[in-house]
């Protein structure tokens, strides 16, 4: 009898555990699409094209949430490390590399592939074209070309061991032309023709930087000229493409040498110009060459770049010599750098804004003192508006005089949001729990409202919606009327610190996405992202989106056209915000209406610490439902 009782208890416990497991497994809401990838998921990357690229133990998979099947599966190279995938900015391309960082790279086989993740096409695979070693692999935009260098196992025995360059058309996946960097079978001492930097593709010819010098070829691969300028890392040409500047990293990457050559390969400067630090900005102007370089920790432009110290130089285009007798003092990292009609405007991360003429004379009566971390510098009808982590003001762009009687000051905050209320002709800034209203004409400041967000959050978004004021953060949303009176305060509790950290990394914010692509468009292509020197108008989100769409539309390729259409449409977060929170039955994602503060949609997820991505622009949730399964949900419904 006792044995029967024990067995019955075990049976009841088993049934309970089984039912609990089934209930747990069914917690997640039925998805719009379900993708069983058949392999363990290691990484998820949400691309600017709205396609989720998933790294598994077998390779890469692309998921377009409107399609029932993956848009591509690439398992040719097997499992990939995070550093072996390179998503090309402002493009539909991901470059896959394998064997590049190996101990015996150059001896062992190296593989490269280029995938168009929007259409799901493998555009280039080095194995298919018999490349035994790939040294460099560069996507060139807006020409939409791929330039590779390495050793190709084709031709006679000499050709199979001679370094080669090939140019492919990314729209058609076809080879345009190829050529050898050295003469196959050449008798004599072996020479190193390794490619040392990014090739420069011009209208009439191509320049390849090598360890032996710069080599220029026609678009059919014919020899044009060669120079002895060795080790160049990147190049940029003027608008006429008749003058080319080459940048060579020296002193273990601490300093830079600038070379200038003509379109016939002639050296146009008597001596190259040595610049202290790493060149971060370079602008070719009628008056000369504007150069910003960073020294010290973070000089490579990484996450610690604000710790570096910048120098600004203005060089003669004819000789490379300094045109300024005395360079402007920066005493810190140049966070903002803009070319104006009458000179150069710049802002320092540690605080300070100044403007100098092209002949080096100060244009401001004195350097402007500001708070640390200049979040915004932009045109406004009254002058230059700046907003930092500690203060804000508008200054006269001609003299540097303050337009407001005194700067608006507030407690230092990592998050400061602002907008312009055109109906009431005022600027609104929220910082340190206070909404400030600044009259655009008089500069008079008033405290419109004091707000308190739960979990000690600070607002990071602010906008005018139907005449009311919207502010939001990760877990909080608030709408106020013209007078600062609260209409609603919607708060969705974060599912603990771990979940909260996931929401920060999980949501690709529409505003930042548009700003990133728009900045690339403003910079222009084929200049290594160095020239990003347009001072924008304040509150230009709409124009930024159009600029991004126009940039994609200008490239003759189906995938770029698709991306252009994506940025033509309104963002999914124009009228709603997506928030990870605790629901009655577990952790889930909610869609909260910005006009009402009410939850329009909720999706229950089964994990306390879910792994997911939200495309705020397109309005889709990608959720890792299990080790090998992705669910997608349409948040627009």
What does this structure look like?
- Helices cover 11% and strands 41% of the residues.
- The longest helix is centred in the first third of the chain and has 24 residues, at 2-25.
- Mean pLDDT is 86; it is low at 1-26, 102-106, 498-505 and 518-532.
- It has 637 residues and is mainly beta.
- The strands form twelve sheets. Strands 1-46-45-44-40 form a five-stranded mixed sheet.
- The chain contains five helices and 46 strands.
General form: flat
The percent range for helix content is: 10-25%
Number of strands: 46
Unreliable segments of 5+ consecutive residues:
1-26, 102-106, 498-505, 518-532
Strand content: 35-45%
Structural class: mainly beta
Please, what is the average pLDDT? 86
Give the arrangement of secondary structure elements.
Layout: H1 2-25, E1 33-36, E2 41-46, E3 52-56, E4 60-63, E5 72-74, E6 85-87, E7 93-98, E8 111-116, E9 121-125, E10 131-140, E11 145-152, E12 164-169, E13 174-180, E14 200-201, E15 205-210, E16 213-218, E17 223-226, E18 234-237, E19 243-250, E20 255-262, E21 273-276, E22 278-285, E23 288-295, E24 309-315, E25 334-339, E26 343-348, E27 353-357, E28 374-380, E29 383-388, E30 391-395, E31 408-409, E32 417-421, E33 426-431, E34 434-439, E35 445-450, E36 461-465, E37 468-472, E38 476-480, E39 486-491, H2 496-506, E40 507-508, H3 510-523, H4 541-553, H5 558-568, E41 576-583, E42 586-593, E43 599-604, E44 612-615, E45 620-626, E46 629-634
Parallel strand pairs: 40-44
Antiparallel strand pairs: 1-46, 2-3, 3-4, 4-5, 6-7, 7-8, 8-9, 10-11, 11-12, 12-13, 14-15, 15-16, 16-17, 18-19, 19-20, 20-21, 22-23, 23-24, 25-26, 26-27, 28-29, 29-30, 30-31, 32-33, 33-34, 34-35, 36-37, 37-38, 38-39, 41-42, 42-43, 44-45, 45-46
Helix pairs in contact: 3-4, 4-5
